Amino acid sequence: MTSYRITLLAGDGIGPEIMAVAVAVLKAVAPQFGLTFDFTSALMGGAAIDATGDPLPPETLVTCRQSDAVLLAAIGGYKWDNLPRHLRPETGLLGLRAGLGLFANLRPAQILPQLIDASSLKPEIVSGVDIMVVRELTGGIYFGQPKGIFSTASGEKRGVNTMAYTESEIDRIGRVAFETARQRGKKLCSVDKANVLEVSQLWRDRINGLAQDYPDVELSHLYVDNAAMQLVRAPKQFDTIVTGNLFGDILSDAAAMLTGSIGMLPSASLGSAGPGVFEPVHGSAPDIAGQNKANPLAMVLSAAMMLRYGLHQPGPAQAIEQAVFTVLDQGKRTRDLMGPGMTLLGCQEMGQALLDVLN
Ligand code: NAD
Ligand code: IPM
Ligand code: MN
């Protein structure tokens, strides 16, 4: 029997609803593969602010560090939007990523045949799309110094963030991206704004330098504005995309809509050692929180990514992914994916449908 310690960060909004589904699914597959999970829940985001005044209490980081993997649902919401920046839920999430050294964020956007009609793009544009966005996660404009709101000599306020990357930061994410592309379609597109930004010029130079070590991977470059356009014009041209923190945030939400709903997209955040964090690409969806309307599949697929990338257990990962395909084959849909002839389910009922397939 192999046992894993998993930290659960349910967070805010729809977080607890979708986390409950993922935990039930993990409990269902575990015995079938000789695994046991030792789950520990910890506070994070708005829930942690309400309980402790801190969006990332030190004990949460300790619990995460002591575990084999971390499952995170989502954080944030209207209630905490006007707090000072250091007390915001989002600051807790950035602290978690930095604190665990999670510099590589893998965000797969794959269109499932069952969901072709759910995409806002034409079926012929999206059918067969299979993209992996490799987003740098602990650098760039999210973390660069100086940052803040400062007063100028004239007494006016000036907001500042700094987009900065060192050579070593670019190289380590670049290597993850080339290795990822090598396991996939052997095509890597690096996205930057090198026509305008010095930080992007260095990014491009370093990625070009790394290419010598990966002659089997075809490397291309796009400016981020063109990349956003190409993603919705002809997404099938992409295999693996590597980009910085902010561009990756934006492009992965755009890629989400190719697949029908942001409620379908999982992600894995990995460092060079220690536990990874596995979380949906979407946020806490405060507009539908507490209404049993959320799509839990991005969360469930994040649990599958945890098994595959964090715990090196491809068997149960595949079983979970297969259960998702089967439920979609049965025509079962949450509201975000609803279409003619489909059966509308709530979040909990979608969870039960997965359990019915798995048990
Ligand atoms: P969001 O992703 O929460 O929601 C955008 C839209 O997508 C909303 O209409 C929402 O209802 C819908 N949606 C999202 N996930 C869904 C799901 N699983 N099922 C059905 N519909 C879903 O983005 P937002 O509204 O810009 O942000 C809301 C809050 O979430 C903010 O506080 C933001 O900072 C936070 N956020 C957190 C994370 C995270 O925890 N990783 C990621 C993004 C945003
Ligand atoms: C994401 C989110 C976060 C980000 C926010 C909530 C800090 O949008 O995980 O995509 O910008 O990275
Ligand atoms: Mn985002």
Describe this protein's structure:
With 359 residues, the protein is an alpha/beta fold. The chain folds into 2 domains: 1-111 and 263-359, 3-Layer(aba) Sandwich (Isopropylmalate Dehydrogenase), CATH 3.40.718.10; 130-258, Isopropylmalate Dehydrogenase. It is built from 12 helices and 14 strands. A 10-stranded mixed sheet has the order 2-1-3-12-11-4-5-10-8-9, sandwiched between helices. A two-stranded antiparallel sheet has the order 6-7. A two-stranded parallel sheet has the order 13-14. The longest helix has 17 residues, at 167-183. The two termini are 19 Å apart. Manganese (II) ion binds at residues 249, 253. Its main location: cytoplasm.
Chain-wise SSE layout:
Elements: E1 2-11, H1 15-29, E2 35-41, H2 46-52, H3 58-65, E3 69-74, H4 89-99, E4 104-110, H5 123-126, E5 130-136, E6 144-151, E7 157-162, H6 167-183, E8 187-192, H7 198-211, E9 218-223, H8 224-233, E10 240-243, H9 245-258, E11 266-270, E12 277-280, H10 297-310, H11 314-329, E13 332-333, E14 343-344, H12 347-358
Parallel strand pairs: 1-2, 1-3, 3-12, 5-10, 8-9, 8-10, 13-14
Antiparallel strand pairs: 4-5, 4-11, 6-7, 11-12
The structure holds nicotinamide-adenine-dinucleotide, 3-isopropylmalic acid (IPM) and manganese (II) ion.
Manganese (II) ion is lined by residues 249, 253.
